[in-house]
Amino acid sequence: MEAINGQELGEKVIRVIKTIYDPEIPVDIYELGLIYDVMVSEEAEVKVLMTLTSPNCPVAESLPAEVEEKIKSLKEVKDAEVEITFDPPWNKDLMSEEAKLELGML
Fold first, then answer.
1. Are 48 and 80 in contact (CB under 8 A)?
2. Is residue 1 assigned to a domain?
3. Do residues 17 and 67 touch, judged by C-beta distance below 8 A?
């Protein structure tokens, strides 16, 4: 079995995460700052720590599942798990400059 390049796989995971958009905001969830951490193990298992814009977010059930499915669709990924946290709570300061620009906040 070939060695897993964690950084390379991590970048692929982030690219796939950037294809997922918040249904209420025309910005991908990575640029929105909803992804707190992407961890890749030597066994190509991916764990994502993410938050939602609010605990009552209308996609609280479906969004984490979509993130998990998209990551698992990468052939190099053996398994994926998404953990939701509200610590720290999301706020607009977590958004990238690109997202703020897109939403006219700059």
1. yes
2. no
3. yes
Residue 29 sits in a domain of what CATH number?
Answer: 3.30.300.130
Whole-model pTM over 0.85: yes
Residue 67 corresponds to which tokens in the numbers above?
Answer: 């993130």
| Pairing outcome for strands 79-84 and 45-50 | parallel
In the chain, the amino acid numbered 58 is P
pLDDT in tens, 34-77: 999 999 999 999 999 999 988 888 888 899 999 999 999 999 99
- Report which of 92, 11, 88, 98 is spatially closest to residue 49, judged by C-alpha positions: 88
Domain membership flag for residue 104: no
